[in-house]
């Protein structure tokens, strides 16, 4: 269903990004795997993707670095063709109460989570406009919808992603480009491995379980596909009902 399309997924070497890359490739997309540092994991994912008979290439890129992102988008366009589906998934946390949060922890989270998404949108924008087609899918969080104590930086970045999504959706709608966000709840990945999964947390999730990376990947696949051609500026929660 995504045959011949080029998907660019940031933070794809592990966790939710990896599941998204696999899901899009299973459905025929060629994938640019953007990673920060884990080269072996990124290369190993590419080998796995190629077994699905799609093209896959890994690119090391710090999403927060404007020039690196520009160079990466140019390299992807040269090697795989222009980007059709952009998935801004890379993200970090630097949790703490505002009282003790360092300025650099605030800046780092905003720079990776929010500016990183802007950087890729900015540099993919001309290609999308030329094709008069494309999908942008930004990974937000229920923390951005509800606010989460101890995560002021993260919640601000993820709420910012929602504003960015809606603004760009309006800008690009006239060119046939759809821009949406997915807001995961509590998903089992490295990011959440140190969080205490007590009954208290599970008790807040109406569906009674934490999510899997594949749960998020399914929503991304839907937004990337033909079935979502009339959806833009939307935020889909994948949270077991946590933020109802
Ligand atoms: P993870 O920590 O397993 O993966 C994050 C990925 O982003 C890693 O591959 C990492 O290398 C990459 N990354 C970090 N900084 C980068 C940078 N400067 N440049 C390029 N890549 C960079 O985390 P997970 O759980 O897979 O998270 C994926 C996305 O989903 C993040 O945006 C996160 O905020 C979001 N999310 C995760 C939730 C969860 O419960 N795990 C809940 C809600 C949202």
Itemize the secondary structure elements and their pairings.
Elements: E1 6-10, H1 15-26, E2 30-35, H2 39-50, E3 56-60, H3 66-80, E4 85-88, H4 103-131, E5 134-139, H5 142-146, H6 152-172, E6 177-184, H7 199-203, H8 213-224, E7 235-238
Parallel strand pairs: 1-2, 1-4, 2-3, 4-5, 5-6, 6-7
Helix pairs in contact: 1-8, 3-4, 4-6
1,4-dihydronicotinamide adenine dinucleotide (NAI) binds next to α1.
Task: Describe this protein's structure.
The protein has 244 residues and is of the alpha/beta class. Helix content is 45%, strand content 16%. Strands 3-2-1-4-5-6-7 form a 7-stranded parallel sheet, sandwiched between helices. Helix 2 links the parallel strand 2 and strand 3. It starts with 5 loop residues before the first strand and ends in a 6-residue tail after the last strand. The model has no long low-confidence stretch (mean pLDDT 97). 1,4-dihydronicotinamide adenine dinucleotide binds next to helix 1.
């Amino acid at each position: 269903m995504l045959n011949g399309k080029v998907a660019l997924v940031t933070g794809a070497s592990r966790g939710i990004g990896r599941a998204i890359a696999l899901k899009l490739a299973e459905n025929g997309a060629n994938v640019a795997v953007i990673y920060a540092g884990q080269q072996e994991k990124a290369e190993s994912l590419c080998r796995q993707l190629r077994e699905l008979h799609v093209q896959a290439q890994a690119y090391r890129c710090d999403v927060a670095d404007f020039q690196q992102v520009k160079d990466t988008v140019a390299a992807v366009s040269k090697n795989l063709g222009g980007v059709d589906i952009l998935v801004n998934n890379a993200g970090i946390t630097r949790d703490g109460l505002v009282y003790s949060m360092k300025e650099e922890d605030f800046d780092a989270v905003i720079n990776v989570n929010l500016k990183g998404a802007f950087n890729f949108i900015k540099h993919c924008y001309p290609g999308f406009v030329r094709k008069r087609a494309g999908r942008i899918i930004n990974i937000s969080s229920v923390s951005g919808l509800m606010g989460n104590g101890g995560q002021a930086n993260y919640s601000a970045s993820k709420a910012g992603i929602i504003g960015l999504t809606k603004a760009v959706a309006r800008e690009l709608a006239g060119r046939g480009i759809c821009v949406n966000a997915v807001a995961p709840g509590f998903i089992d990945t490295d990011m959440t491995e140190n969080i205490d999964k007590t009954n208290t947390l599970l008790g807040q999730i109406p569906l009674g379980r934490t999510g899997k990376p594949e749960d998020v990947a399914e929503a991304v696949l839907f937004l990337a596909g033909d079935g979502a051609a009339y959806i833009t500026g939307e935020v889909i929660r994948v949270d077991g009902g946590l933020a109802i």
